[in-house]
Amino acid sequence: MSAQHPTVDVHAHVLLPGMHAEVERRAPEEVAEAAALDLRRNGVESQKVSGPMVGSRIPKLTDVRERLASMDAQGIDRQWVSVSPNHFYPWAGEGLAGWVAGETNRLVAEHVAQAPDRLTGLGVVPLQHPAHLVEYLDDAVLGRGLAGVEISSFAGDVELSDERLEPFWARAAELGCVVFLHPFGCSLDERLDRFYLANTVGQPTENAVALSHLIFSGVLDRHPGLKIVAAHGGGYLPFAIGRSDHAWRVRADARRCEHEPSTYLRKLWFDTVVHDPMALRHLVEVAGGSRVLLGSDFPFDMGSEDPLGFIRSAGLPSEIVDRIAGANALSLVEDRVHA
Question: Environment class of residue 168 by beta-carbon count within 10 Å: exposed (0-12), middle (13-18) or buried (19+)?
């Protein structure tokens, strides 16, 4: 615990193997096709590494006792728990996708209820079926008492600028809940199928693309109350935002938002999974010390084993460190609508 506030990790995952087995039973051909796509995107070499890595971490991903022990070792008082993004199933048809969203929300709520003083849950919505997003957002927040939902950077033909998402954004703002943006997969596909580029380049790219859709389309203008938290420090966008500003100034087709794109970085929140103290300092500079939240990507190998040590290594003022370590996350959820 910090001197003033409990420490909060906003980026931690849970795996739902029982639910996945049922998805496999209901849609075996689609699951096989999705696995083949993952193989094409990631490449054989990376998949051979990822399989054993995830397998060795299943206790931490499923057992609350293991989770709490790891949190204690890291000095983390509370985790926001969201599903591993392989549970998004963006290919699922309307019926299956609705069942998955409801079941995910139920299982996450059950998981965090085992330690309610330490764990906060985030549910999901079927992003590829915009007509049902409000229904499952309400299910997560009002029905299950979760703090918000986790979404991907896109799903099928649905980008985050899609007009069909307007009711979802409006309802999320009305509820004051968290929308945690965490990509799964990258549309660059086979170009990233070696050297683990599907993750190291793909994830930051997807974050940047998704946030750019939100900014340039005016979503943040129309729904200023949104609480969007971007995983992986927002990807590349905070570090190349000057190019976006330039485009906004010189091109009419890039002026769909009311202000320069860089101003919207201070209307979003970002986790600290950037792996570089210099990058963290820059993120604080462009987004503000109140908009950065501690994240670890628990318990995967691309996460941080010592997230508190990482933020302390960046040479930030102690007040900013304290905010990032927990105060910002606590203030983000304190005024949301509860079930």
Answer: buried
The upper half-sphere exposure of residue 164, i.e. CA atoms within 13 Å in the direction of its Cβ, equals 13
Please report the pLDDT score of residue 39 as a whole number.
81
Per the structure block, which two tokens stand in for 184?
Answer: 């799964």
In 3D, which of 62, 74, 53, 15 has the Cα closest to residue 295?
Answer: 74
SS3 content of the chain, % helix, strand, coil (to 5): 55, 10, 30
Q: Tell me, what's the pLDDT at 334?
A: 86
Residue 20 CA: distances (Å) to CA of 30, 31, 188: 12, 9, 26
Residue 159's pLDDT is: 97
Q: Quote the pLDDT of residue 49.
A: 83
- Return the residue matching tokens 């096709």: 33
**Angle 325-150-117 from CA coordinates, rounded to 5°:** 50
Of 204, 158, 151, 156, give the one whose Cα is nearest residue 178: 151
**Could you tell me if residue 144 is left (phi over 0), alpha (psi between -120 and 50 degrees) or otherwise beta?**
alpha
Per-residue pLDDT at 158: 97
Confidence of residue 337 (pLDDT cuts 50, 70, 90): confident
- The token pair that represents 129 in the structure block: 């079926």
How far apart (Å, rounded) are the C-alpha atoms in residues 107 and 18?
10
Q: Whole-structure pTM over 0.90, yes or no?
A: yes
Alpha carbons 172 and 187: distance in angstroms, whole number: 26
How far apart are the C-alpha atoms of 140 and 145, rounded to whole Å?
A: 6
Sequence-distant (6+) residues with CB within 8 A of 202 are 41, 183, 185, 186, 188, 192
> What one-letter code names the amino acid at 236?
Y
